Amino acid sequence: MRKVVFFLVPRLHLLDLAGPAQVFSTANDLGYRHDLYYVGETDEIGTAQGVPVKARRDWPELGPADLIVVPGWRSPRLAPVPPISAETKRVLRDHHAGGGSVASVCSGADALGAAGLLDGRRYTTHHDLTEELAARYPRASIVRDVLYVVDDRVITSAGIASGIDLALHLVAVECGAEAAAKVAREMVVYARRNGDELQESAMLRHRDHLSDLAHRIQDVIDGRYTDRLPLTDLARGAGVSERTLTRVFTSATGLTPLRYQQLLRLERAEHLIGHGATVEAAARAVGFEDARMLRRLRSRAPEPVVVH
Question: Nearest CA to 107 among 125, 89, 121, 91?
């Protein structure tokens, strides 16, 4: 039975803890056994969401097969030093030096950095914290805008919901892809994402505007991006001219409606290909008649970051 120890830091984000903990707990329910521990430097840990959680003060005996996870804490900006003691840093270093694995969610990467575990390694964190951590740990290599990174038994994730992706990956490595798929299905996870997928989907990246018309058109495209969506039909449904629709949509999102639809198709196709689908099968699944257009779009897109 593998031990998984969550080290709890004051003002931790509940989902940073609960997401990965639920993955391992669900794995237990399905027969893939993990022994879960919750350790802190005080008996009770206040969370960012106001719900206190209990922790034990003593660490269980750990071996090379075991895992320590440091969930993130609330940090619009990072404190000058992470809220962990010298003794906790030593535990993290010693566990890794002994062959064990350590992981972080969101700002938890700051704790790993303070323990010296990021030096000379690749890592990631929440997109709001990348510049601060990059400056704080210049001997480490930050990988921006990916879900998680694995480097020499140091596993870091972007934060919040990506902690679920990280934990599913760890279950897949330990127990097999079928086990991870069963856990994801039991948890009603829409899709198990690879580490090199973007932290923000196209549906989110192009929503930071105030145009009601553009939002309404995006709602239509988001729900039907695999269908043919002629501009005339979109404009008629919105009650505006094609010219007005194109002008407003492009001004709000930086993309034409067609380019936005293509981006959604490309992103979904890349996800399918990353999970073993052929280019031809992925192209058909996202609404292309054949793979030629998908290949053209992929050739124009920036090269994805490959996470080993």
Answer: 125
